[in-house]
Amino acid sequence: MRSWIVLALACVACAPEAQDQASADADLMDAAYSLPAHAPEAFGLGSEASTARIAMWDVDVKPDGEGLPPGRGTVAEGEVVFRTYCVACHGPSGTEGPNDQLVGSEPWEDWPGSSTVGGYWPYATTLYDYIVRAMPQLTPGILTPDQTYAVIAYILERNGIVPADAVMDPETLPAVRMPARDRFVTDDRLGGAEVR
Amino acid sequence: MNEGPRRRISRRAWIAGATGAVAAGLVKTRADALSLVAQEAPARAAVDPTKVPGRFTSEVGRRATGEQPRRLARTQALSSSSQSPLQDLMGIVTPSDLHFERHHAGIPEIAKGGHELLVHGMVDRPMVFTMADVERFPRVSRLYFIECSGNGGAAYSRDSMPTEITVQALDGLFSTSEWTGVPLATVLREVGVRRGASWLLAEGSDAAMMSRSIPLDKAMDDALLAFGQNGEAIRPEQGYPLRLMLPGWEGNAQIKWLRRIEVTDRPTMTREETSKYTDPLAGGTARQFSFVMDAKSTITFPTYPYLLPERGWWEITGLAWSGRGRITRVEVSTDGGRSWADAALQGPVLPKCTVRFRHLWDWNGREAIVMSRATDETGYVQPTVQQLWDARGDRTRYHFNNQRAWKVASDGAVTFGLGELV
Fold first, then answer.
1. pLDDT tier at B75 (50, 70, 90 boundaries)?
2. Which of A28, A46, A184 sits opposite B129 (nearest CB)?
3. Per residue in B364-400, pLDDT tens?
4. Cβ–Cβ below 8 Å for A58 and B270
5. Å from A98 to nearest chain B CA?
6. Which of A147, B5, B69, B92 matches a 20 to 30 Å C-alpha distance to B39?
7. pLDDT tens digits for B85-100?
8. What H or E segment, with its residue span, contains residue A132?
9. Is A191 on the interface with B (CB under 8 A)?
10. Which of A21, A143, A184, A188 has the highest number of chain B CBs within 10 A, making it the mutation to test binding with B?
């Protein structure tokens, strides 16, 4: 229904020939999808997902820490993990590459120079979520929860965000306040003619 | 099939070849004769295709020998992309094997038989759907474009605007297909979305487990769980066996190799929507969840490295699209934007889809700067690069929908000409 209203408004604004074209195309291809009137309430397709099945795949971590597994890791332990699994792509100090620069922050006026954890990442929990999914790049998912917490502690410490004696666990990680936290604004383009 | 350089073979030479085979006693049966015809047909057809029977039917067709459009696949890396050859394409549909690629940890090999979609979270009935289940829901087919939000960045670089760049390298992270799938709303109805839900997390089955948070409103509006592309199964590069289609939205959010949807009441804040696909703006902020692709057009002819061999009538053509709805107008300028003329739009003009535009131009042989600008049904006019720089600063990273320009020199040589205007 909404698409028809939008279409009607659009046609007021455009030339007669464009209006004819739009009407013809609307007949061909209504943007809204609708089920036939006699479609059932439910099709009865699929099977119930067991709790175990959901747990096996439900790896994501929310900004408030929901989804973080038990475990803990220190900065010192994290340095070992980093030197073992991360330096080949991120460099000995997390700045050399060849892949993404992890360490560093830029003054506000030059922001952002790069997408470093210290300069651009708004949530510390995203590190856990991303490492579990995609890191190390050639053997994703290989790190244990303890190793993951540890390497996050090390990366945060290198960025000057947590002290050298920090311990990361399901309680402390979501509590980390990231420097870039308040810089993000939800899409503020308003539609219509304005260029933003 | 001989794919090598075409050779001129004289009529005498192929007759000698054929008669030689006959003389040597190699042709004993009708099958032998047909085989010989098949072997020699290309060479004979090169002389005169009306004097030789053509080849037989085949199970899978192929392109003409002289027509070999290719993606631009320059980087071979785990996180990589390739561009569609926009300059070689006609109409609006991208042949599936030329659809642009963007993946974050390679293209996974997934067997359809074992692939399942888990839908859980704030739902009444967490469910697992096999592909057979998914494909049994009522289907729809729609033509939609997909554009990578990083497409066209070279047309935004204030310090190093290129001149010798093809439209493929510039804007080829853009393709259009007819997609077939089931509305995500139908599947969400099946599992029962709970009150208070407002987002979902979509997750891929690739080695990056690519994941994006998607507003529930979009999921209920026109999102598709797509398994078909241009009349056949989606290509592995585009997410086989199942991908999320979010019409008009940036490509990275349209999760390929989709295996999990979690209904939630807030975004997950994955890396792809925090440190990756966000848009730094002037003033030290970054725009997040900037899903919609604003209206844009790009000329596909004339573009670098084409050389107009003579003055006279040439058809300027290109593609226009908007993630907000229908394109209502495309204008073309041949004087660097001082004056504009309406281009013809090739119908049907579909929402969140691509339009082919054309403008017949009588080139007088003098230097010209050819441009296009699109307007969509919301009244949005494709901005100049200066307008976008003013609005966003010059270091934003995605959504480069500003006007492009191509310079036609008096000798007919075409180069990217936006740098001439700024």
1. confident
2. A46
3. 999 999 999 999 999 999 999 999 999 999 889 999 9
4. no
5. 12
6. B69
7. 999 999 999 999 999 9
8. helix A125-134
9. yes
10. A184
Q: Nearest chain B Cα to A121, which residue?
A: B275
Q: Which residues of B349-360 are buried (b: 16+ CB within 10 A; e: fewer)?
A: bbbbbbbbbbbe
Domains of chain B, residue spans: 11-51, 80-282, 296-420
Enumerate residues 152 to 211 of chain B having a beta carbon within 8 A of any beta carbon in chain A. 183, 185-186, 189-190, 201, 203, 207-209, 211
Instruction: Fold for B80-282, please state it.
Output: Sulfite Oxidase; Chain A, domain 2 (3.90.420)
Summarised one tens digit per residue, pLDDT across range B126-158 is 999 999 999 999 999 999 999 999 999 999 998
Cβ of residue A107 closer than 8 Å to a chain B Cβ: no
CB contact at 8 A, B290 and A116: no
Whether pTM exceeds 0.80: yes
- CB proximity list for A27: less than 8 A, separation 6 or greater: none
CA A99, distance to chain mean position in Å, is 18
Report the alpha-carbon distance of residue B240 to residue B234 in Å, rounded: 5
Query: Each residue of B4-18: pLDDT tens digit?
Result: 444 444 444 444 444
Separation between Cα atoms, residue A162 and residue A173, nearest integer Å: 10
Q: Report domain extents, chain A.
A: 1-33, 59-183
Q: B 18-77 residues with CB below 8 A of A?
A: none
For chains A and B, what is the number of CB pairs under 8 angstroms? 203
Handedness of CA B83, B85, B87, B90 (dihedral sign): negative
pLDDT confidence of B283, banded at 50, 70, 90?
confident
Q: Is the Cβ pair B271, A129 closer than 8 Å?
A: yes
What local confidence, expressed as pLDDT, does residue A4 receive?
A: 38
Interface probe for B, chosen from A5, A23, A60 (most Cβ of B below 10 Å), is A60
Give dist(CA A168, CA B23) in Å, integer: 85
pLDDT beneath 50, residues of chain A: 1-16, 18, 24, 27-29
Residue carrying the six token digits 């593609």: B319
Q: A59-183 — its CATH code?
A: 1.10.760.10
